Protein: MBL fold metallo-hydrolase
Amino acid sequence: MCDTAGGISEVVESMPRPAHGTAVDPIALEPVDQVEIVTLVDNVFDALLAGDERVRRTAFGATGIVEAPQFENGMTAAGLVAEHGFSALVRVVRNGRTTTLLFDTGMSPEAMVTNAERLGIGFDDLHSVVLSHGHFDHAGGLAGLAARTRSLPMVVHPYAWTRRRLMVPGDERELPTLSRKALDGEGYEVIERREPSLLLDGSVLITGEVDRTTGFERGMPPAHQAWNGTDWAHDPLVIDDQALVVNLRGQGLVVLTGCGHAGAINIVRHAQRLTGVDRLHALVGGLHLGGPAFEPVIRPTVNALTDLSPALLVPGHCSGWRAQHALAAALPDAWVQGSSGTTYRLTA
Structure:
């Protein structure tokens, strides 16, 4: 997906549109007292990572015992599933009340629910589901979730149903396409929104479409294509990409991304414009900086994030190792290695 760079026509097609000044319709995002983000699925699981006062890790032995006949007692410790996907449980505390959301569901039907079970997390109190976009590595776990929960509201962008394919030489394939009919049949109450959405009495913002305002975050390379009804065409923007935003009282914005196809800096600036809150407290999730097509974006992204100076930075999923190293070097006090089963607790 990220192995080739575009030419002049692709660059022009993916250039950002201007969005200067304050938002036309600003969002009054109510401050919250605490945000807890539990990474249910990420690309890695490392049981040897250390935690601190805001980061709780899942260690060996903390996720139960499973059968393993090759050992003398027939048992072994269970780990957590890591796959090329992302899913996070978000708990928001406001005025003494805790509400839980699910942001993305990973790639495979069982990874997210398996990890949740091993972590002792149930879905009975789940308020709703939010999809960052329609790519299969963020929506694959919906089937596993549906088998274990009641009917749930689900917020998606209407372009999440877009047919897409990758045209990398030697590896040309159509991606799994999310089905609105199937989700309706599984009991999800699908809510399609292109515009920003406020959830939980105005304390959680779903950005909707993100304004593309930077000069360097140009989107996907020509290999990423979408069906427009008559033909396949380059799909640089992945316009259904959206993020989850919370305003932590006295600290600033907490921004959670899926893949960050809109660009990490575009997303943060969009959230700042919508809410009028300038301070970025935390950025967690995929930043899509892996692969040759995106490596030129790493340096300006690092520079912009350094200026934003978040207290917590957790690049996950598709961020890529080169970006991880660059961000860790530039923001050593904020950067934290992501891993399946990690909990980030941020308090006002």
